[in-house]
Amino acid sequence: QLQLVESGGGLVQPGGSLRLSCVASRFPFTNHAIGWFRQAPGKEREGVSCISRYGGTTIYADSVKGRFTISRDNAKNTVYLQMNSLKPEDTATYYCAKTRGIGAGCSLTGASFDSWGQGTQVTVSS
Fold it and tell me: Which residues contact 56 (CB under 8 A, 6 or more apart)?
């Protein structure tokens, strides 16, 4: 069974940084773009960022552009989300997922993804 596992969340003060990791297993990693999504209590899931199969294309939600950076290491089957200048409104559970289709391009639409991880909690608070 293919699997995506997120880690790296935690409690951080406003203005701080965190790096999230998403480790994939049991599927050909380079067949799929990988996306990061987040969901805060009482809010809908939001697409945060996506990286294409070999990292040539990255996209970001306007709310994180200039603060978050997505990258991937295909040798380690891992995608990272570097989050800087964190704000209280970034507080959420963060999930990674792979695109449904082999070779599918990036988007921030959750319906285009499957195999969601269990999530990692990010809390930004003083």
Answer: none
| Length in residues, the chain | 126
Residue 2 has pLDDT above 80, yes or no: no
Pairing of the two strands 10-12 and 120-124:
parallel
Dist CA 20 CA 41 (whole Å): 20
Question: Rounded to whole angstroms, how far apart are CA atoms 21 and 9?
Answer: 9
- ∠ at Cα 53 (23, 98), nearest 5°? 50
Q: Tell me: the pLDDT tens digits for 6-32?
A: 999 999 999 999 999 999 999 899 999
| Three-state secondary structure of the chain | CCEEEEECCEEECCCCCEEEEEEEECCCHHHCCEEEEEECCCCCCEEEEEECCCCCCEEECCCCCCCEEEEEEHHHCEEEEEECCCCHHHCEEEEEEEECCCCCCCCCCHHHEECCCCCEEEEECC
What is the residue whose two structure tokens read 């997120």? 6
Tokens standing for residue 91: 């507080």
What pLDDT is recorded for position 103?
87
